[in-house]
Amino acid sequence: NLSPFSHKVFRVIPQNEEQVEIISALASRMQVDFWQPDSVTQVKPNMKVDFQVEADKSFEVESLLAQNKMEYRVLIDNLRTAMEAQFDSKVRTTGHSYEKYNRWETIAAWTADIAAENPDLVSRSVIGETYEGRQMYLLKVGKSGTNKKAIFMDCGFHAREWISPAFCQWFVKEAVETYGKDSVMTNILDRLDFYILPVLNIDGYVYTWTNDRMWRKTRSRNAGSVCIGTDLNRNFDAGWCTIGASDNPCDCTYCGRAPESEKETKALADFIREHLSTIKAYFTIHSYSQLLLFPYSYTYKYPSNFKELNSIAGTAAKQLASLYNTEYTYGPGAETIYPAAGGSDDWAFDQGIKYSFTFELRDTGRYGFLLPESQIKATCEETVLAVKYLANYVLEHLY
After folding, report:
1. Tens digits of per-residue pLDDT, 82-120?
2. The domain 104-396: what is its CATH number?
3. Which among 262, 360, 373, 382 is annotated as catalytic?
4. Does residue 360 have an active-site annotation?
């Protein structure tokens, strides 16, 4: 387990297969935590590869890279310092804040409060419980009406991606604050419901606050292994464990012992299956890389509505960039970044949800998973523009 004392984060861009091999060799010699891509098996030439190693190993890493004439840079010189620097919000409150990273207890209390304060717009339910027995809260946001279609949006699949739950909270705030003032938001909420899961991997999220900031997976035990946890975004029944996922419980892309083996995966999948007739779009929020992805990730083949998805992703990316010029790359997952099986977006799409998107929020690696709180507001504001555009599109193309 990597405890984050003065770890370093490197970026290397391997120029050829030979250099890819060197990165693989490095990973087999020491414990390397890959930030981007998710695992060493996904590394390919000309790809940005960000990884974290313990400080006392960094000399070995640097000399190996130098020996092989590989260019690299140190993205984060001291992880501990970067972790402390995250908490740079000017907001001085011990309670909930939309411009701070909130602990799970604070988020859980917020879900109750936001529903109580906005009874005509927000309701809260429980869709299951986590491995460690925490309740999984779901917010339904929208004006009550009959036969309404819905969009499902989740945050916090991967524990260390803190900006993700921050966005789900921000979006709910935006919905309740601008309903009745902003015509687009009002129209969307009058005619559609949003099902919002503020944190899926609650146990993992709690663990990133208490034990290991860089934890990614769930906290479930794996039979016959000392290694803990499954990658929830490899645990869905979509090309499960075929590519870009690991069957080794010690890997951070472990696919689990079977599809939906994790309680969290099953709760989410069950809810969507029960509401398939109403859910017309699925948005899942991750970080980092500034990407807007759509199916497929478990195969290089294109979805049947590829042209439509590609076109709306492009427009959504333009909408997002219109505020702070933040550039997003968009496209089908496998081709745009790397193949990865068992993801929720592919699964939702294969369930018949035509509009299925994965967001990878800020940044592109300067801070990686440690995006400072001072960037929460801007990140959320620009992302809301893309989500509103997509929601409005779905509304006008109901099927």
Report:
1. 999 999 998 888 899 999 999 999 999 999 999 999 999
2. 3.40.630.10
3. 360
4. yes
